[in-house]
Amino acid sequence: MSEPAGDIGLIGLAVMGQNLILNAADHGFTVVAYNRTVSKVDHFLANEAKGKSIIGAHSVEELCRNLKRPRRIILLVKAGDAVDAFIQQLLPFLEKGDIIIDGGNSHFPDSNRRYDELKEKGIYFVGSGVSGGEEGARYGPSLMPGGAEEAWPHIKDIFQSISAKSDGEPCCDWVGPAGSGHYVKMVHNGIEYGDMQLITEAYDIMKRIGGFTDKEIGEVFSQWNKGVLDSFLVEITRDILLYDDVDGTPLVEKILDSAGQKGTGKWTAINALDLGMPVTLIGEAVFARCLSSLKDERVRASKLLPGPQIPKDAVKERQQFVDDLEQALYASKIISYAQGFMLIREAGKTYGWKLNNPAIALMWRGGCIIRSVFLGEITKAYRENPELENLLFNKFFADAVEKAQSGWRKTIGLAVSYGIPTPAFSTALSFYDGYRSERLPANLLQAQRDYFGAHTFRVLPEAASENLPADQNIHINWTGKGGNVSASSYQA
C-alpha cells in the first residue's frame, strides 16, 4: 500500500474552499478535497483542479486515508451544527496528534468548546479566521489561527505560504489559545462594519450637503486612496461610485437603502458590552444597519418629521470641505481601531489568553477586507510596545488625531446643523472627548443610583473625610426618610 500523499485536507468546495485549495496547490502542497455532495468533487477535479496537485476524496474515510501524519484537515463549511457534524464524522478516522482546523466564521465560544472537547481526545483544534473573500482565498488571504499551539509547527509553513504578504511578511501568525483566532476575526469583522459605516457617512455628507454627483464623490475617494486613507474599502467605494448601469446612470442610485448583516458585528458589540468595553463605533454601525432596515417606517417619517433645509450653497469652499471630511474619516478610523484593540486586550485579560498583538495588526495589513496603509503603523506601535495600553497613547496616532481635530469637529458640526445623521463619526468624537476627560459626570450618576437604589458610591481620595472615608462603598440617606441599609453590590 502506497504512502499517503496529501499535505492537507479540505472539506467544503464552495467558492472559498475551492480557491483556498487552488492557492495551496500553487504553493506546492498536495491537497485532498472532499465535499458532502461528492459530485462537486468530481466536477472540481475535471475542471478548475485539472492537472494540479489535488486529490479527490469521496468519503471522510478516504480523505483521512490520503493524508500524511499528523493529519491536517481544514473545514470550510457553514458555521454552527455543520462544523460539529463533520468533526464527529472525522473522529473515527483520526489519531492522537491529528489537527482539525475550522476556517469558517464560527463564534468564538463554539471554538472554545471544540478546543476543550478535542483536547480530551488528543486531537489538536485550531480555529482560524480567514478574510479576503474569493480573491483573497485564491491569491492570499489574511489568516488568524488560534487554538492548540502544539498544532502551529505542523501548519505554519502551509498557512504562511498561502497567506497574503505585506512588505514580504506573511499576513498570518499564531494569535493565541482556544477560540482566540475566531475572536480576532470577529473583531476584524466588527471593525469592518465601522469602516463601512464611516465611508457611507462621508458619501452622504458629500452628496446631501456638498451636492456632489456620484462621479465627483468617486473621484474624491480616488484621491483619498492615494493618501492616509489608502485601503481596500476606500478603493472599492471608488469603483462602485464610478460604475454605471446599462442606461448610463450610476448603479449605486438604484440599490435599496436597506442593509443586511450576518451577525459578526453584532457579536462584537455584544461581547464589548459583556466585557464592559466602550466599543461605541462598532455598536453604532450595527444599529445604523438596523435603522436602515426600517425602510417603510423611514419613508413615512420623512413626510411627518421636519428637519433643517440644506441650501444649495451650503458648501462655500469645496476643497476645504473635502479636506475636513478626509480628516474626520481618518480620525474616526483611528478611534475604531483603538477601540477594537482595547476589546482584544480586555479579552486577553478576561479569558486568560496571551495574545500576539503586533502579529494581529500585521495579519490585517494585507489580504483582508479592512486592510489599509495605516495598519503598518499599528504593527509598528505594538512591536515597539507589545503592552501598549491604547493606540491613542502612541505618538503617531496621538499626533494624527490632534492634526485631524479641527476638520473632524467642523464636519460633524456641519452635518448636525443640516440634519445629516453621522452616528459613527459622532460617536468616535464623543469617545475621544470622553476618553481625554479627567472627570466625567458619572459622579452625579452614582449619586442618583445611591438615591433610588442604595447602590452606594465612593469618594474622591482628595475629598475623603471622617464621615466620607476613602476606599469604602458609602450609602447616604439622601432624604432623611430612607433607611441606612445599602445594596450588596456597587456595580448593580
Task: Give a description of the structure.
Belongs to the 6-phosphogluconate dehydrogenase family. It is an enzyme of class 1 (oxidoreductase). It catalyses: 6-phospho-D-gluconate + NADP(+) = D-ribulose 5-phosphate + CO2 + NADPH. Catalyzes the oxidative decarboxylation of 6-phosphogluconate to ribulose 5-phosphate and CO(2), with concomitant reduction of NADP to NADPH. With 492 residues, the protein is α/β, with parallel strands linked by helices. The protein has three domains: 167 residues, Rossmann fold, CATH 3.40.50; 252 residues, N-(1-d-carboxylethyl)-l-norvaline Dehydrogenase, domain 2; 47 residues, Single alpha-helices involved in coiled-coils or other helix-helix interfaces, CATH 1.20.5.320. The chain is built from 19 helices and nine strands. Helix 8 packs antiparallel against helix 14 and helix 9 runs antiparallel to helix 10.
What keyword list fits this structure?
single chain; 492 residues; alpha/beta; Rossmann fold; N-(1-d-carboxylethyl)-l-norvaline Dehydrogenase, domain 2; 7-stranded mixed β-sheet; 19 helices; 51% helix; 8% strand; 6PGdom_BS; gluconate utilization; oxidoreductase; pentose shunt
Fraction of residues in β-strands: 5-15%
| Helix count, DSSP H or I runs of 4 or more residues | 19
Return the domain count: 3
Distance between the termini: 67 Å
N to C succession of SSEs: EHEHEHEHEHEHEHEEHHHHHHHHHHHH
Q: For the record, what is the CATH homologous superfamily label of the largest domain?
A: N-(1-d-carboxylethyl)-l-norvaline Dehydrogenase, domain 2
- Say what the CATH topology of the largest domain is: N-(1-d-carboxylethyl)-l-norvaline Dehydrogenase, domain 2
Mean pLDDT: 94
How large is the radius of gyration? Answer: 26 Å
Residue runs with pLDDT of under 50 for 5 or more positions: none
> Helical percent range?
40-55%
In total, the number of strands is: 9
CATH architecture term of the largest domain: Orthogonal Bundle
In order across it, which strands form the biggest sheet? Answer: 3-2-1-4-5-6-7
- Mass-distribution shape: globular
- Per CATH, the class of the largest domain reads Mainly Alpha
| Biggest beta-sheet profile | 7 strands, mixed
Structural class computed from helices and strand pairing: alpha/beta
